[in-house]
Amino acid sequence: MGDDFYDMPTWFKEGTAEFIPGADERLKIDGLANAKARAKQLINGAAWSGTSLDYSAAYLAVKVAASNLSGVNSFKDILSDIKNSDDSGDNTIQAILGRTTFGDITDFENAIDAASFDLDDDDVGSISGSAHGGSSKNAKDVIPTGGLNDNPTNFNVIFPTSISFSASLKIQLGANIGQTMDIDLFSVNSGSLGLGSVNVTTAPQEAITKFDDAIKSISTKRANLGAVQNRLEHALAVNENTQENLTASESRIRDVDMAKEMMAFSKKNILTQAAQAILAQANQQPQGVLQLLR
To answer: Is the pTM of this model over 0.70?
Structure first.
């Protein structure tokens, strides 16, 4: 298999991820004309920059491809062709052209230019929405968060009915046990600030007092969070200093090991040279005797 997830261009991966739940709202904000221009750049190999416009353009390109499938082909067939490709490199465009009515990439570009979508309706343009034979689905309906009856085995799925928080949050500051810090959490809403029943028409003075108390409460909580931030910054500085010291210690240990190895190497060289000198002297004596015999 030549093409896998990593061979696909980023625009196709991100566009598919946007296409599944739908991204008409993003496309409307970024502008259809801008997305068309950027989509044509992306399918021709432009670098991915990760901006909101890039995501809108990628979504538009994938949506146009899915809207121009030929015969009984489906979008899953495009993914299967990419997966089953037996040569290396990116074959995304070839897979799209093979399953759509596009004869070449120019036809793909022309289809992007001609694309027209209703971006003002409630449907977000998901793969299961009204644009693809399903019912109209808004951002809330496209991914349901309730009504699950068939829970997976050994799992108990509980959907929250309200938002709650713990009284404190414990975080680890250092590498050793006990090096933690508790951060006190607090609720900030109209009820906790005493502003749930403010009436500026019938009781303006009381309302002003409540607003002042709420501001004081928020200021106190901001001061507490500022103190926590200072402690975290100090802990970060300590950890960075510890890391620097450990790195320096490791470097010195490596230097000592290197010096030891160099000493052993020099010792071996000296012994080798001495052995060679002794061997040379030993060879000179029999050679001298041979000279006398001649």
So the answer is: no
pLDDT in tens, 202-255: 888 888 988 898 899 889 888 988 888 898 888 888 888 888 888 888 888 877
- List the domain range (segments joined by +) for residue 176: 168-250
pLDDT tens for residues 172-207?
887 788 888 888 877 788 888 888 888 888 888 888
**Which secondary-structure segment (H or E) carries 271?**
helix 204-293
Same domain, 115 and 38: yes
Domain contains 238: yes
Q: How many domains does the chain have?
A: 2
Same domain flag for 31 and 81: yes
* Tokens standing for residue 52: 């909101």
Residue in 150, 157, 130 with CA at minimum distance from that of residue 141: 130
Residue 192 CB contacts under 8 Å (≥ 6 apart), including other chains: 186
> For the range 238-245, what are the long-range contacts, defined as Cβ-Cβ under 8 Å and sequence gap of 24 or more?
238/174, 239/173, 239/174
What secondary structure does DSSP assign to 8-70, as a single string? Answer: S-HHHHHHHHHHTT--HHHHHHH-HHHHHHHHHHHHTTPPP---HHHHHHHHHHHHHHHHTB-
